[in-house]
Amino acid sequence: MSDDAAPDLRASDADRERVAEVLRDALAEGRLDMDEFEERLESAYAARTYGELAPLTRDLPAAGAPSPLAAVSFVKEPVRDGSWAGRITGGEGSSTGAVAILSGFERRGRWTVPKRFSCFAFMGGGELDLREADFADREVEINCVAVMGGVQVIVPPGVEVVVRGIGVMGGFEHPRDDGPPEPGAPRVVIGGFAFWGGVGVERKLPRAERRRLREQRRQEQLERRAERHELHRARREERERRRGGGR
Question: CA-CA distance, 44 to 213, in Å (whole number)?
Answer without folding.
Answer: 27
